[in-house]
Amino acid sequence: MIQYRKILELHFNHVSQRTISTSVGSSRNTVSDVIKQAEKLGIDSLTDEMSNRWLEEFLFPEKLAIEKGFFPPDWETVHKELQKKNVTLKLLHMEYDQRARDGGKVPYAYRTFAENYGKYAKKYKATMPIRRKPGEVLEIDWAGSTLSITDRGNGEQLTVYIFVATFPYSQYSYVEGFLDMKSANWLTGHIHAFEYFGGVPETLVPDNLKTGVSKALRGEPILNEAYRELADYYQTVIVPGRVRSPKDYPEVFIILKKGSHS
């Protein structure tokens, strides 16, 4: 197994490639390829998140696809094509699907294609800005601040939790209050937002919440079944923000911060 992290650790400490090769037990060509790919993708230091597996997936995603028997997408090309006018992820998947079948290869289904691109885009965001397009992504969250209303029957003060959905390109938002943050209201908020906007975005990016994510493994959130079914019904894809990573949903975060002062 190639020790991607060890190779880069030694490289960043100015150890020669010959010495690195001897230390990790990989050929000098392999060491050189890892270093060149890291430089190409803008990695000049390592964080705790960058495990050996993370680096393998990030640096050489096509290799993993081939190992699993799938036709490997060129994620860098997908990423650049998405920045062009009138190009959508669904269109790029159709083209990828056709290329795979023409070559007698197995293509990824659209959902897997979109989810894998979402992972790639989040990792790449640190080194290459992602240009949003109108209607492409909807970022969703519960506001940190709450409101309150008075029950006319008994005078009791009831807490109101604020659901916010925002298009990052335009900052166009839908806001609704609920008496709790349970799954039913989380889903209702989505439905009402779609009705308000008059359409459904290509991708939903929710905060990593218990109402939408049943289990939040590091980098691999697991969606609860009701939320997944909602996405299937509306033919959209959910790419949860990472745990404690507000950069994954900055527009909602900014709006909520502004709202907290009003």
Automatic annotation (TrEMBL):
InterPro entries, per the entry: Integrase_cat-core
Residues covered by the Integrase catalytic domain: 130-252
Domain of life: Bacteria
Gene Ontology BP terms: DNA integration
Coiled-coil region list: none
Name the record gives this protein: Integrase core domain-containing protein
Organism whose genome encodes this protein: Alkalibacterium thalassium
